[in-house]
Amino acid sequence: MSTNTLSHVLHHNEPVLIKLLVLGVASVGKSSLLFRFIDQQWLPEGEKNPTIGVDTWVHKFDVKGKKVVLNIWDTAGDERLRAITSSYYRGTQGIILVYDVTNRSSFEAIAWWFAERGKYVPELAVKMIVGNKSDKSQTRQVSAAEGAAYAARMGCLFIESSAKTAVGVRETFRDVVEHILLNRAVIK
After folding, report:
1. Could you read off the pLDDT tens digit of each residue along the chain, which spans 188 residues?
2. Exposed site from 85, 111, 115, 168, fewest CB < 10 Å?
3. pTM
4. Which positions ≥6 away from 143 have C-beta within 8 Å?
């Protein structure tokens, strides 16, 4: 992709509307990542309620001078509610698959979410795997290298983050949006 093509996309004045879907099992910190990104705050685990169904967030965001309006769908990770999320995939341009670095089973569940995504979302949708709770190094069960290697095999972007400390949070959304804008430039 040439810089000129991206520059062409980024110089239009109207905001770009982008739909993102955030997936992962319960308690990996999906809502915490969003709360940190949008409100720059972190709520301790005892102060949060689990997502039931889906929460939607709208956030205006600047990426390299381009105005972007993110429509972010935060899905419930509870297995009982997974079946209802298939309708949420429609129109999604980016998927953020989140696991907890201190919970190996949440990492292993990414494969299920990835397969589910494949049923409903075009291959051109940008995918990022996020290893959340990286601040909990003492109880880590999944290394950054293992997460990155899996993401590479699946053709996804990868980052580790901590909603608690804000490490990697803004970069997660910025990187996904930049890749979506690049995809749009290639398609046009």
Report:
1. 444 445 444 455 788 999 999 988 888 988 889 889 998 877 766 555 555 556 677 889 888 888 999 999 887 655 555 555 567 788 889 999 999 999 999 999 999 888 877 778 888 899 999 999 999 999 999 999 999 999 999 999 999 999 999 999 999 999 999 999 987 754 44
2. 115
3. 0.83
4. none
* 178 residue type, one letter: E
Q: How many CB atoms lie within 10 A of CB 132?
A: 28
The superfamily in CATH containing domain 3-187 is P-loop containing nucleotide triphosphate hydrolases (3.40.50.300)
Q: Which of 111, 141, 105 is nearest to 129 (CA)?
A: 111
